[in-house]
Amino acid sequence: MSWILQGNPKRFAIDDYLSSYLYIYRSAPTNQRDFALAERVFIWRAGEQAGAVAIGRVQELPVARHSVRYPEALGDDLWVSTPSPPPEVVLGMAIEEFRGTPEEGMLTRTALQAHPLMGKHSW
């Protein structure tokens, strides 16, 4: 199975996070028992420049944030607006590729909307 996890740049400096860390944590509020190691994860950047900007693989199943393997990779200093409260359960993943702009090959919302099959969904 593959997953799409979202990062909202109005709340969290997702581009800085993905360009600075090879191992990241994302909130896992739902479907916690459905994740499996090595599954592919796509990171979707919300907002005006929305699109799939990174690909990674699950390396650490959902865990309480105080028990993560790499607490320095939580990116707590990258919150633009204070989460209320910070996510308690997070999923650890290794980032394989980060493509932050269309020129770097990100999959834009516009490209998905123009696709004959994917355009049927709301992006």
The major beta sheet can be summarized as: 6 strands, mixed
Report the end-to-end length measured between terminal Cα atoms: 20 Å
Structural class: mainly beta
- The fourth-level CATH homologous superfamily is ph1033 like domains
Low-confidence stretches: none
Number of helices: 2
Strand content: 25-35%
- CATH architecture label name: Roll
* Percentage of residues in helical conformation: 10-25%
> What is the chain-wise order of helices and strands?
EHEEEEEH
Q: Whole-number average pLDDT? A: 91
Protein described:
The protein has 123 residues and is mainly β. The chain has one domain: ph1033 like fold, CATH 3.10.590.10. It has two helices and six strands, in the order βαβββββα. It has helices spanning 14-20, 109-114; strands spanning 2-7, 23-27, 40-45, 51-64, 89-98, 107-108. Strands 1, 2, 3, 4, 5 and 6 form a six-stranded mixed beta sheet that branches. A hairpin with a 5-residue loop joins strand 3 (40-45) and strand 4 (51-64). The longest helix is centred in the first third of the chain and has 7 residues, at 14-20. It is globular and about 45 Å long. 20% of the residues are buried.
Offer a concise description of the structure.
By secondary structure, the chain is mainly beta. It has helices at 14-20, 109-114, and strands spanning 2-7, 23-27, 40-45, 51-64, 89-98, 107-108.
